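Long-time lurker. I teach an intro course on protein structure, and each term I like to show students one example going from raw sequence to a predicted 3D structure in token notation. This year I'd like something fresh instead of my usual example. Would anyone be willing to generate the tokens for the chain below so I can use it in lecture? Attribution to the forum is fine with me.
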Amino acid sequence: MLSSVLRASIIVIVYNGEQYIERAVQSALSQTVADIEVIVVDDGSRDGSADRVGRIKDSRLRLVQQHNQGPSAARNTGIREAKSDWIAFLDCDDWWTPDKLEHQLATATRGKNVALVYSGATTLLEDGSVLSEAVPRLRGAILKKLLLGNHVTGSASSVLIKRHSRRGGLGFVAAHRGAPPDRNGAEITRLPPVAARESRHAGHTDA
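-- Reply from a regular --
Happy to contribute to a lecture. Here you go:
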């Protein structure tokens, strides 16, 4: 059963990712933080992604299906469904180390102005070899630097963000394929690598 107070909502987006989705969802459900919910948004997949999710029996897991609208719209659907103020994103072909969320939540609660916590990430090839390591470098009030470019390491899969850290709520620009572009000047902090792992493969796509 779900806790009455969820510590985080994890939004997993998938589009034709049946080969990877179970690994991503299991890495979310296997976090050392138990009081979570995992929302899988199937963005119009034409393969067996939804069936793969349906095989996983866990009361913390929900599947939401929609017509294909792209990754930003899929994440926005997940945000609308989320019940926690802390939102984490996970792409279907990425996965987390078991303590990723625990460390991020602990970091987030150390300061009252923290709005976003991000981690390092390792990108792996299909054979398991390391393609690259993304190491967090910026921390504190870095709004101006974010306006000049995306300095958050890895992909959206490395981010934990507070729902009310922006005026008017949290959301992605529908045509935008990266992290939410406006942080409202709130504090952003970091964790050492590696908490998120990303795979690169033939036909790689978000949604």
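Some talking points for your students: Residues 8-200 form a domain with the Spore Coat Polysaccharide Biosynthesis Protein SpsA; Chain A fold (CATH 3.90.550.10). The first helix runs from residue 21 to 29.
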